[in-house]
Amino acid sequence: MGLRVLAAMSGGVDSATAAARAVDAGHEVTGVHLALSSNPQSYRTGARGCCTIEDARDARRAADVIGIPFYVWDMAERFARDVVDDFVTEYAAGRTPNPCLRCNEKIKFEAVLDRALALGFDAVCTGHYARIADDGALRRAVDPGKDQSYVLAVLNKDQIAHAMFPLGDTPKTLVREEAHSRGLLVADKPDSHDVCFIADGDTRGFLARKLGSEPGAIVDADGTVLGSHEGAYGYTIGQRKGLHLDRPAPDGRPRYVLSIEPVSNTVTVGPADALGVREITAIRSVWTGCEPPTAPIECAVQLRAHGEVHDCVAAMEGDSLRIDLRSPARGVAPGQAAVLYAGDTVLGSATISAARAAV
């Protein structure tokens, strides 16, 4: 017997194909597009597949082709508070947030799922590339280049139990071919990239408009002033370009952002080999593939979307998660997610609060 399924339709090829597959599986499917901006024209324009007026129209046309009811839900206020404001606050605090992860957590699988369950739906279907195992564990997609388990790892067990990811077992190229065969006009629509609520892609400019100019110093590890900046929020750990330093390094090698101190408004830079991190502390852990470990576990950790995977030992220390890497990782920034895996299965995730250099 089929389920009552709410299909979140962004206006892109993935969510449209996922909705069509849910219909093929015998479910009673209703499409919904999330209106995430009170002024959609202020968001990114063009055929990108996320939150513009064109996207809403594309989603509606896809629903018509599939033959399912379609609605638009206004999530602008919730999105502004839980994703956009959070993004700005995190950068102001010297951290590097992932807005797609926050959107999955707070919008698609909290606000939308809560409303869907209240309306009598059994599950929410999306076009994410991930799989759900028979035991309810979240697993990587078969297409490693499109795998989105990292940005879904913040979901809890109950949310995963009410989720559907019909595309997790299919490479993206075949999804586009399938969309063509179904007559979906979004079959060739480009994938969305970057941050959807920053229309021109200029994150530093967006933050400057929100936070204003806050001049400060760029220094090396011993405190020598090398240059200045207009806001520490405009930098991320591991950044190389855009430093505009007045004094080159004595050895001529490039410098990278090593740390960001929002209280003193200082950005510290140094050589690439100073970026190596061996020990990570993370907070707000969520465990879906196992129970919270009572002893250290051998596993692997991914520290950014589509980033490298590192072997590690993870252990709970009070309310915090400690991760000891077998080999150093670079560009590890507070605010990012650390997602633990056993093979292709997500064990849990947590938000990085501190990282210590390799010694």
- Percent of sequence in beta strands: 25-35%
- How many helical stretches? 8
Q: Strand-and-helix sequence, N→C?
A: EHEHEHHEEEHHEHHEEEEEEEEEE
Structural class: alpha/beta
Shape verdict: globular
Q: State the CATH superfamily name of the largest domain.
A: HUPs
CATH topology of the largest domain: Rossmann fold
Distance separating the two termini: 58 Å
**Mean of residue pLDDT values:** 91
**Radius of gyration, whole Å:** 21 Å
Helical fraction equals 25-40%
Named CATH architecture of the largest domain: 3-Layer(aba) Sandwich
Low-confidence stretches: 42-49
Largest sheet: 6 strands, antiparallel, barrel
Number of domains: 3
The counted number of beta strands is 17
Instruction: Give the strand order of the largest sheet, numbering strands 1, 2, ... along the chain.
Output: 12-15-14-13-16-17
CATH class designation of the largest domain: Alpha Beta
EC number: 2.8.1.13
GO molecular function, one term: ATP binding
Keywords: ATP-binding, Cytoplasm, Disulfide bond, Nucleotide-binding, RNA-binding, Transferase, tRNA processing, tRNA-binding
GO cellular component, one term: cytoplasm
